[in-house]
């Protein structure tokens, strides 16, 4: 890419770039001066979550790190409408006061010489601005939007003016000397609470610092740094109060909850103790361990008693059987081991009487009355012993039944010991748990009371609100640089688009991209109408120099011929208006000025133009007359007298024929050319455009050189494609291209400037030099 050419393409539009820069930079400068600068005020606070966790009575979460890092609750609180509404009310953000100065900006002020007393609630305030002036009679209040003016008489603020949402009075300090404020103007802006809250919320930024745990950054963006600092300070103070109030609320709720739980646990503990008492009473349990020992011992005792009783029953039955089987004179046994002293004594008494009877029997006979009486007594006594034993046996049997029942009861009580122990253990466990919880609740209550007594906030201000006085909007350097860049980019973009869609021919490259094998013969500069005929032999005009260069380049393109015959140079173009007649005319003049016998023929029978350069009538007889009547001599129609050169003859097109195509293709024209070659050095043909009609293509083979004229910033590149097709088909031969009407002020891609190409000064040309060359002194060659 040729950067120089690309640069020159855009440099030609430098006035537009300059105008765009002036507009954008000027607009940016005015905007910076008009729009009040916006500043960023920031503060940093620390929420110590560790301190908060230490003072907690009840901790649910076990994740310390998450609780320390989680600041979402505080951030949501600070950005909530209810919280910010308190900021709006506390700082009275519904009102903004400015001192009006004669610049594009106003100064925000805090200390006012007057005070506004609202007559409506802040929620109902209108969104409006007023300008306030103080004079000797009172106040003049003007609504800025409607320019309605209100007069308030006096300084005491007793008068309510219809249409104003407030009363106004002078401050105590201003009342001492009101004349100090007569020359000043003030501006007050009113906003309803909803709008003030919305504006505050949109200008406030609250975010946690990712690099530091527990740190929150507060930022407020506004045009008044002092007001921004007050807002951030108020937010910090309110947050601190909210933290303390929330903690107090938490501790109050905690103590209340603990009291409720203590009361509930007291009832539950008493209920369990009563249940235990009833259970012990119902189960005849004093102490469970003693109860177990007692019931176990009782069971053992009952077993032993039952065993002894059974042995007594067995022995008593044996004794009865033994006594019944004994004879009358047989002694009764005393070793029955009966646990009945009565029976044992009766047996002893019986045996004693029996021994007495034996003694009597030894001294007397059996019929001895004493013996008989004693035997009768023994019999009776034996029967009594049996009766007693049977009664004892019955007693023992009854005891056996009772013992079995008691043993069963004792066994059941022993078997119920695990169940009783389990139930009593559960009761004791519940009672112990309730007791422990009761004690823990009492401890927590004491901790809550102590923490509530020494309660403090865990908020610390790391950085007090500070304002960065480097405006964030508009930033002068960035804004001006952006305006400068836009000032360049906008015309560049427009120019780029224009050039991208531009299909006109502007330089030699545009031609060579389409028809690369065709030489460029020259460039004809754009000149004024007054100078288009300035082409004499001694002329130093731009058109004369350009025509000489064109003639020289055409001579190099002419084929070499041995015979001394004239050369035919055909001038044509794609469409009408590209200047082929102009180029043919100057080429013919230049050739004649070089002492070459030249014939200029106007072959464009449809739209002839040559007569304008020679100031003759358009219908003067010429080529068409000769072609229509071969008997005529074409030399009779030549125009020889002119003010340019004595070496040039002109054959004009003549009267417009009805059939130019047929007329031009007859043999008369070719014979004319052949004869003219013997009489002239150069025959210059001004022909019709080849893309519009086919006239020129019918005789183009007669030309030695075809000069194809394209016009700067006029000829479309698509036309060159058609010409290239004509060349490839051989319909045009030995073609060279000349660029006509080159604007030297705006042209790009040319290696020289016609004003100083050969060291000449063309003061007479009337072409204005570029501004950057007007001071140059050009030396004569």
UniProtKB/TrEMBL annotation:
One of its GO terms (molecular function) is non-membrane spanning protein tyrosine kinase activity. Keywords: ATP-binding, Cell membrane, Membrane, Nucleotide-binding, Transferase, Transmembrane, Transmembrane helix. Its EC number is 2.7.10.2. The chain crosses the membrane at residues 12-32, 478-501. It is a multi-pass membrane protein. This is Polysaccharide biosynthesis tyrosine autokinase. It comes from the Bacteria. The lineage of its organism: Bacteria, Pseudomonadati, Bacteroidota, Flavobacteriia, Flavobacteriales. SUPFAM superfamilies: P-loop containing nucleoside triphosphate hydrolases.
């Amino acid at each position: 890419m040729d950067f120089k050419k690309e640069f020159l393409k855009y440099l030609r539009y430098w006035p537009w770039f300059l105008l765009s820069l002036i507009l954008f930079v000027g607009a940016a400068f005015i905007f910076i001066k008009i729009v009040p600068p916006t500043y960023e005020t920031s503060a940093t606070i620390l929420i110590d979550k560790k301190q908060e966790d230490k003072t907690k009575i009840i901790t649910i979460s076990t994740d310390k790190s998450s609780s320390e890092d989680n600041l979402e609750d505080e951030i949501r609180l600070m950005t909530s409408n209810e919280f910010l509404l308190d900021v709006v009310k506390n700082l009275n953000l519904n009102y903004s006061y400015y001192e009006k100065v004669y610049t594009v900006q106003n100064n925000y002020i805090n200390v006012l010489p007057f005070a506004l007393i609202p007559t409506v609630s802040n929620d109902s305030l209108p969104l409006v601005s007023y300008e306030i002036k103080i004079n000797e009679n009172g106040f003049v209040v003007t609504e800025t939007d409607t320019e309605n003016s209100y007069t308030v008489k006096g300084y005491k603020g007793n008068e309510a003016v219809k249409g104003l949402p407030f009363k106004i009075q002078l401050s105590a300090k201003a009342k001492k000397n009101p004349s100090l404020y007569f020359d000043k103007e003030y501006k007050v802006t009113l906003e309803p609470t909803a709008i003030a809250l919305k504006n505050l919320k949109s200008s406030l930024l609250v975010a946690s610092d990712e690099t530091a745990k527990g740190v929150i950054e507060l930022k407020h963006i506004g045009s008044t740094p002092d007001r921004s600092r007050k807002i951030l300070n108020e937010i910090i103070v309110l947050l601190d109060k909210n933290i303390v109030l929330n903690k107090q609320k938490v501790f109050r709720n905690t103590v209340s909850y603990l009291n409720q739980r203590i009361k509930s646990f007291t009832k539950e503990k008493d209920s369990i103790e009563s249940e235990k008492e009833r259970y012990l009473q119902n189960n005849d349990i004093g102490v469970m361990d003693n109860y177990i020992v007692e019931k176990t011992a009782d069971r053992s005792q009952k077993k032993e008693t039952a065993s002894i009783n059974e042995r007594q029953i067995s022995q008593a039955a044996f004794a009865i059987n033994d006594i019944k089987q004994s004879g009358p004179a047989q002694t009764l046994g005393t070793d029955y081991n009966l646990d009945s002293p009565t029976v044992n004594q009766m047996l002893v008494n019986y045996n004693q009487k029996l021994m007495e009877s034996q003694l009597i029997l030894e001294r007397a006979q059996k019929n001895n009355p004493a013996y008989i009486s004693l035997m009768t007594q023994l019999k009776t006594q034996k029967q009594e012993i049996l009766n007693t034993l049977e009664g004892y046996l019955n007693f023992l049997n009854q005891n056996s039944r009772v013992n079995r029942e008691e043993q069963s009861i004792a066994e059941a009580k022993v078997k119920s010991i695990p169940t009783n122990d389990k139930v009593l253990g559960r009761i004791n466990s519940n009672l112990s748990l309730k007791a422990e919880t009761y004690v823990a609740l009492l401890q927590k209550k004491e901790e809550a009371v102590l923490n509530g007594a020494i309660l403090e906030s865990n908020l610390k201000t790391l950085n007090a609100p500070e304002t960065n006085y480097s405006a964030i909007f508009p930033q002068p350097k960035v804004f001006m640089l952006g305006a400068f860049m836009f000032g360049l980019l906008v015309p560049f973009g427009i120019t780029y688009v224009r050039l991208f869609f531009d299909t006109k021919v502007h330089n030699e490259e545009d031609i060579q991209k389409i028809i690369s094998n065709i030489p460029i013969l020259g460039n004809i500069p754009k000149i004024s109408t007054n100078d288009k005929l300035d082409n004499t032999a001694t002329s130093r005009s731009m058109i004369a120099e350009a025509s000489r260069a064109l003639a020289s380049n055409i001579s190099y393109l002419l084929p070499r011929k041995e015979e001394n015959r004239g050369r035919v140079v055909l001038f044509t173009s794609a469409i009408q208006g590209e200047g082929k007649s102009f180029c043919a005319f100057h080429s013919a003049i230049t050739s004649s000025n070089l002492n070459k016998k030249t014939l200029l023929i106007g072959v464009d029978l449809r739209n002839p133009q040559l007569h304008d350069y020679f100031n003759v009538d358009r219908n003067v007889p010429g080529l068409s007359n000769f072609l229509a009547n071969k008997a005529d001599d074409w030399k009779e129609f030549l125009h020889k007298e002119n003010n340019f050169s004595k070496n040039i003859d002109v054959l004009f097109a003549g009267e417009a024929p009805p059939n130019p195509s047929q007329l031009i293709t007859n043999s008369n024209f070719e014979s004319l050319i052949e004869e003219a070659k013997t009489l002239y050095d150069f025959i210059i043909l001004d022909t019709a455009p080849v893309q519009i009609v086919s006239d020129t293509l019918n005789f183009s083979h007669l030309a030695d050189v075809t000069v194809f004229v394209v016009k700067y910033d006029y000829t479309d590149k698509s036309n060159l494609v058609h010409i290239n097709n004509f060349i490839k088909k051989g319909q045009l031969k030995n073609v060279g291209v000349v660029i006509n009407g080159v604007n030297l002020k705006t042209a790009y891609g040319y290696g020289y400037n016609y004003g100083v190409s050969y060291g000449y000064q063309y003061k007479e040309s009337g072409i204005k030099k570029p501004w950057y060359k007007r001071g140059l002194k050009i030396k004569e060659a």
